[in-house]
Amino acid sequence: MDDFDREPQGHDMPDEQYDLANEPQAEPIPAPHPSHTSSRVSPTSVFCIQCGYNLTGVAIGSHCPECGRMVAPSFHSPTLPTSGKAVASMVLGICSIAMCMFYGLPTLICSPLAIVFSIMAKKQVERGEAGGASTGMATAGMVCGIVGLLLALLFIGFIVLAIVAGNF
């Protein structure tokens, strides 16, 4: 039995008693204040390419309220490419840790390169030339490069100490 085939219940009104003219009218919803639109997400929302803040209602040419980055790049390129320098930094940093077993010498080359490429990649992100994912890779390259450099110096120090002590 369908809902339309049953008899009206206590809260249902027969069709002849239902009158739209006497229906109470809902009050119109006021338009939101422009300062409140930044918290709403819509299909046309634009987000900061550096921190992800919703830039709806923020004027083009101004700066992101969260990170201070210029708003214009967010409108022109929502997805920026990953920096090759950030990838190189991360790979060299990981290699610098892995190469400590070779008497620390390859690490003395890879570690400083990882740190330099990391700094260059972070500057690219700040200028808006690379995407936000590059920041994480550059940071990973910096950390791995520093750890690899410290391990290499420690390993070389042990070798020098063993040579001086005459046990090598």
Give a verbal description of the structure.
The structure is a single chain. The longest helix is centred in the last third of the chain and has 33 residues, at 133-165. The protein has 4 helices and no strands. Mean pLDDT is 76; it is low at 31-42. 45% of the residues lie in helices and 0% in strands. With 168 residues, it is mainly α. The protein has helices spanning 72-76, 84-98, 105-127, 133-165. Helix 2 (84-98) runs antiparallel to helix 3 (105-127), helix 2 runs parallel beside helix 4 and helix 3 packs antiparallel against helix 4 (133-165).
Instruction: Give the uncertain stretches in residue-range form.
Output: 31-42
Distance between the ends: 95 Å
Helicity range: 40-55%
Total number of β-strand segments? Answer: 0
The helix tally amounts to: 4
